[in-house]
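hi! just following up on the protien thing from before. the input was this:
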Amino acid sequence: MDDNKRIEILTKNNKRLIEENDKLRKRIEIYSEEQEKIDILKSELENIKEIWTNELKELEEQKSKWQNKKTKSITMLTEENIAEVISSWTGIPTKKITQDENKKLYLVNLKEKYLKRTNYFYP
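and the predicted 3d structure came back as:
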């Protein structure tokens, strides 16, 4: 082989190696940029995780306080309690009907039912 042929082959090989080297450099740049983006995202995720962890701790503390407060003041809910709340909301006085009043209402209703069945009405 003559020298010119060798030089030509070496030149082609050198050119090919330079092109491949350039391609590899570009890929390395792309990977480097992507790695920077990944690092930024990791940092942001760590910040978000820290914020959520703090919020979770705060909510757990509030829950604990609420449960402690709730267990300290457990009272029995009665009909009278419900009547008081309804009365305070509506302004309509509500009392527990006494047994006598209940009997009177029952008798009035019974009388009305009887009169309806017998088709007899008092004016």
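The CA atoms of residues 45 and 122 lie 83 Å apart.
The chain has a mean pLDDT of 82.
cheers
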